[in-house]
Amino acid sequence: MNRFFKFLLVGCSALAINTYGQTPYTDPNNQEGWVLNPEVSDEFKSGSLDKDKWIVQGENDHFENKFKGRAPSQFAPHAVSVENNELVITTRWEPGYEFMKGKHQGHKFENITTGAIISKKKFKHGYMEIRCKAADGPLSSAFWFTGKGGELDIFEIFGKYPKDKHHEKVYHTSFHDWSKNPKDPLFGKTSWDNKVQLPFRLAEDYHVYGCEWNEDFMKIFIDGHLVRQITREELGDKWVMNNEQKVWVDNEVFPWKVNPKKEDIPAEGLKFHIDYVRVWQKDSGMASSSQLIEQNNLLANGSFEDGLEGWETTGKVKLMTKKGSFDGSNHIKLAAGSEATATLHMKLKPNTTYVLSAYARLPNSDEKTIYDNGWLGVKNYGAGQQPIIKYFKNDWYRQSILFTTGKNANDTMIYFTNKWKKNEVRVDHFELVESPSFQETHIKTK
């Protein structure tokens, strides 16, 4: 049995003995004083869905927020069930289903039924957690929240993504801004997102996803590990979580990313398994007790303010000092048509989980017909494959890799490369931090 799955079994066993809603997975001793909100939480152990708590999208022809599904798929009540003490949302190929007329974003509703549940009650601020196994197919399983003016998607997981297998390991969190005029081109668009490349396919097994949200910041977790924290101050007007939220759990099709065909969906359907949904909050006396976790950047010259000191370069790598940096005065340009790579050698702790991040932009990418892609990577860390995450956008944006070192990580190589590419890439603000675990375990690399 590999090391990651040993970790998973230990984590699941610990979770199994934790009574219903006792504590968040990342706060087993409840030092923060969390109190379960049962109106927006469920263990799904009663044999059927609690209709006093949940709206089933499409039941009695009611569609919350007038959202009928992302065509070609349509939300159908029979896609939602409780089986073996779990909520199960099943996406099926059902061309004989009586689909609605009309289109959604240019696509007809046809062939594919899927499901969603939405909480009847709202809440503001808290710790949201789900233990689940995403559907292992070419669609998105999601745990998300909507309220006046804003939306938080804790995750949208693609079980299979034929265009890029690395995407099947990405933990993607995002904000969407619904506060603008509906005619504004940014209405409902992503105002901020966070992508973390993990050392496993997310749809292969159950994982515990958590998010702490308060007035000033948000923390994102997986299996007890902190993967990102972000403040309202950092995001400015991109922060959209200002009001009460409803809970959503669903499967959706994203036809512009991958459009499932009949052969992609087995006869029994693609199933999203949810063990529980839990939301904790704090009473007024404890509301201000949460703090950001101190994380120090272990890279001494991650923003190139000391030029290329400490960095090893191959190909055409140029220090840019005049304008256009994400952070500070300097950044680097990796030229096109060369072996352009910047590498930093690090001695890391053994058996320790880290998050490596960098900001990059690809000036010639239009994200429609031109998809340049430089990539961030790490190797020689003593365990597993060499993880990478690709960059496509023409604005500065941040992506990350979570990895766990083996017994020997004395010459770990952190790098960004533009090998074999036709256009340049700009890179800035590398960051390497330890990813603290709140279960006294580490995510193991397969």
Automatic annotation (TrEMBL):
<feature type="domain" description="GH16">
    <location>
        <begin position="18"/>
        <end position="285"/>
    </location>
</feature>
<dbReference type="Pfam" id="PF02018">
    <property type="entry name" value="CBM_4_9"/>
</dbReference>
<dbReference type="Pfam" id="PF00722">
    <property type="entry name" value="Glyco_hydro_16"/>
</dbReference>
<protein>
    <recommendedName>
        <fullName>GH16 domain-containing protein</fullName>
    </recommendedName>
</protein>
<comment type="similarity">
    <text>Belongs to the glycosyl hydrolase 16 family.</text>
</comment>
<dbReference type="GO" id="GO:0005975">
    <property type="term" value="P:carbohydrate metabolic process"/>
</dbReference>
<dbReference type="GO" id="GO:0004553">
    <property type="term" value="F:hydrolase activity, hydrolyzing O-glycosyl compounds"/>
</dbReference>
<dbReference type="InterPro" id="IPR008979">
    <property type="entry name" value="Galactose-bd-like_sf"/>
</dbReference>
<keyword id="KW-0378">Hydrolase</keyword>
<dbReference type="InterPro" id="IPR050546">
    <property type="entry name" value="Glycosyl_Hydrlase_16"/>
</dbReference>
<dbReference type="InterPro" id="IPR000757">
    <property type="entry name" value="Beta-glucanase-like"/>
</dbReference>
<dbReference type="InterPro" id="IPR013320">
    <property type="entry name" value="ConA-like_dom_sf"/>
</dbReference>
<dbReference type="InterPro" id="IPR003305">
    <property type="entry name" value="CenC_carb-bd"/>
</dbReference>
